[in-house]
């Protein structure tokens, strides 16, 4: 495994010169996959035939009609890479990433921290959550509901998490207290891919984009280095990260005015 580089980099210095990352009742075609519906909703709301990279440059990168297919193709590529990743390497990389995240001054200043619970194919976060629980911070984790809606619920122990349908993701009980999105100071976010401009590619259901839109937290995407790309296809509703952490780097994103923070 490549020796981790602990240098904190701004994305512009690392990659200079690069150009910049439901429902049928809404009247969307019933047969569309979830990510296609998400893109179609954005196209209808924007009233435009072009997709923009969330205010990064203002330059159209591809037609909206192509974005769902581009996302689907990249998801397939990343999943194939993850299947080829050695389990031991994934565990070691997850531990390195956890250590880097815990060292971030933005996290150390935070009072309320949101963190996803890692499953197969994601950076594992249980040790990270355990470290947060041992601190004086309040910790909340996702609980998914129908319609692409998600809450962030407070927990005091990992023992409170149980795998629940429909995704089999460990979640707190339905009576767990949900945090107000506005009080979250720091959010640790998964993704299938990120790019060096802060763009994130999720799994297509839109849970995180909908939730993070309500948060003013520092948004920290975490991924293995093989999931970090020069560019990912984006829609206007996709939420930008402030920081991206891999086992080899920490990228701080310099956002332009009007970007989708």
CATH T-level topology? Rossmann fold
The number of helical segments is 7
Number of domains: 1
pLDDT < 50 runs, ≥5 residues: 1-63
Q: Biggest sheet: strands, sense, closure? A: 8 strands, mixed
Gross geometry? globular
Estimated structural class: alpha/beta
Overall number of strands: 15
- What's the overall average pLDDT, rounded? 80
Q: Residue share in helices?
A: 25-40%
* CATH H-level superfamily: NagB/RpiA/CoA transferase-like
Question: What would you report as the Rg, rounded to the nearest angstrom?
Answer: 18 Å
The termini sit apart by 33 Å
Strand fraction equals 15-25%
Write out the strand line-up for the largest beta sheet, numbering strands in chain order: 1-15-14-12-9-4-5-6
Helices and strands, in order, run as EHHEEHHHEHEEEEEEEHEEEE
Q: CATH first level: which class?
A: Alpha Beta
Q: In the CATH hierarchy, what is the architecture at level 2?
A: 3-Layer(aba) Sandwich
Fold topology:
Elements: E1 8-10, H1 11-14, H2 34-46, E2 50-52, E3 60-63, H3 67-83, H4 87-103, H5 105-109, E4 112-115, H6 126-134, E5 138-144, E6 150-155, E7 162-164, E8 169-171, E9 186-189, E10 193-195, E11 200-201, H7 207-212, E12 218-222, E13 228-229, E14 243-245, E15 250-252
Parallel strand pairs: 1-15, 4-5, 4-9, 9-12, 10-13, 12-14
Antiparallel strand pairs: 2-3, 5-6, 7-8, 10-11, 14-15
Helix pairs in contact: 4-6
